[in-house]
C-alpha cells in the first residue's frame, strides 16, 4: 500500500464518484462529480472504472505527496498548471509520483473543477453504493467533508504501467442546451423568451448545490409557490426574486419553486465548469435532440478506453491542447497563450 | 371511482426523467394515486427506469434514454396509472416534540404579526394540526406534511435563506415540514425538533415514510437539550402511537 497525502488544498475540494442513487425518495441527495466526463477521463487514464471515486479539486491550487511507495495519478477537467518536482504535467495524462514526490497544481483556468484519479481508485465505506461527499449531509468517505491539508488516502502502489494521455473530442462550445419544463407553463411567452434570449452569469455565491444565475428577473405567471415536487440534476428553478438557480449535484431532491427548464445531460458538466462571472446563454432543444445527445454522451464515456494513447506520442500543438483542455468548459474564450504546455518527455 | 379521476400529465424533466403529475395542489387523494403508481412500478418494473421519487402530487421517474425513449415510457406509465389502487397499509402515527419560538423558531413572531395574532396562537394552531407525510425530499429525511391549518397558509420568503438549522420545523405556502439537516430554505421557521428523521448509522436510517401521520407537541428549551442528547446517541425520541 502507498499513501497519497493531501499536502495543501483549497476549499470546495472533495472526494466524488458517479453519485449516490437509490434513496432520492428519502431525500438522499445524489452528489457525485460536477463534471462526469472529466471524472471518467481521469479514471480511464489510470485503468479505473469511469465513475470510481477520485478527488474533485475546486478552483484553487493543491499539492499531493506520495508516501510509502509510488502512486500513479491522472488529471482531467479544468486546466491548470501542474508539475511534479518542477517538471510540468499536462492535463489529460497520467503521471507517476515516486515515493516522496509532490504534484503541485495551480489555480483552475477557464473552468472550476479538475479531477485527480488515482490508480486503483480511492477506497472507503460506501453508502448506497457511493463514496461521494455531501458535506451538508455529513456523507461520504473516507472524509465526509471537504478535503483538508493532512488528509491522506491509502492507495494501491503504482503498477508501473506506461503513462498515457487521452484524446477527448473537441468540446462543444456555444450555449448550454436545455429542455423546457417541467413547469415552463408557470411562465408566459415573454418571460420564456427573456430566459432564452438573455445573457447569464453564474454568481459567486454558487456551490455544488446550485448555481445562482445573474441576469434579468424572470416573472412568474401565477406567483412563485408551487407544491414541492421532484428535481433532477440540471433543473433550473426560479424563486420569488426572479433569479434562476440551476440545481447541481448536491441539489435537494425536491423543490417548491417553478422549474422553467432542465439542462440536458450532455451539458450539465459544461455548465458546472463555467466560471463565476463568465457570460453564457441557454438554447432550447427538442426532447429527441436532448436524448440523442444523452446517448452520445453515454457512448463517449463507454468508449473512453479507445481514446487512450501513449503519452510519448503527444504533440506539442498548443491549439490542439487548448481545444482539448479549455474550450468546452468556459463559454467565453480563455487565453490559451498563458496556459503552460512546455514540457512533455 | 377511477373514472372520475383526471388523467395525469407527463412533464419532461430533462432528457432522463419524467414527472407524472396527478394534481397541481396538495390533495391526499392525488398523493394516494402517486403512491399507488409507485407501488405498481415496484411490482411490475419497466426496463430502463432507475429510480422513482414520490411527491405530494407527482411521481418523478428517472430513466436511461439509452434503454427507453420519452414517448414509449410515457405510454407505459399512463397505462399503469389506470390500474386500480392497491389496498393502503395502515398508517403509522408519530408525536414529534418541538421547541417553538425564540432562537429555535426565529420567524414565529413575524408570522404572528403577519397573521395579526400572537405567537402562542400560532403555536396552538401548528401543534393542533393532524398531518400526513405526503413526501420526503430535498435533503435526507426532510418530511413534507399535508394538513396545515388554512389560517397558517402564507407565501414563502421572496429569497430563500442560505442556512437554516438541523431539526427546523417550518411552514411554507400551504405546506408544513420537518427538516432533518441544516439546509437553505425559503420557509418560515417556527421551531426546532430534536427528532432526527434521518440518522445514518441508526436502524432505521429514515424514520418517516410517505403516508405516515404526524402530530406536534410543544417542549421547553431545557427538554429540547435533553432529548437532543438522547437523539444524538441514536435513540428514536419521536413517540410512535399505533392507531
UniProtKB/TrEMBL annotation, chain A:
Keywords: ATP-binding, Hydrolase, Nucleotide-binding. Pfam families: CT_A_B (PF02626). The keyword Transferase does not apply. GO terms for molecular function: ATP binding; hydrolase activity. Residues 25-301 form the Carboxyltransferase domain. SMART domains: AHS2. InterPro entries: CT_A_B, Cyclophilin-like_dom_sf, PxpC. SUPFAM superfamilies: Cyclophilin-like. The keyword Transcription does not apply. PANTHER family: 5-OXOPROLINASE SUBUNIT C. This is Allophanate hydrolase. It comes from Bradyrhizobium guangzhouense.
TrEMBL record, chain B:
The keyword Cell membrane does not apply. Residues 8-207 form the Carboxyltransferase domain. GO terms for molecular function: 5-oxoprolinase (ATP-hydrolyzing) activity; ATP binding. Gene3D superfamilies: 3.30.1360.40, Cyclophilin-like. The keyword Cell cycle does not apply. It holds the Pfam family CT_C_D. Transmembrane segments: none annotated. Keywords: ATP-binding, Hydrolase, Nucleotide-binding. Its EC number is 3.5.2.9. InterPro entries: CT_C_D, Cyclophilin-like_dom_sf, PxpB. It is an enzyme of class 3 (hydrolase). NCBIfam families: 5-oxoprolinase subunit PxpB. This is 5-oxoprolinase subunit PxpB. It comes from Bradyrhizobium guangzhouense.
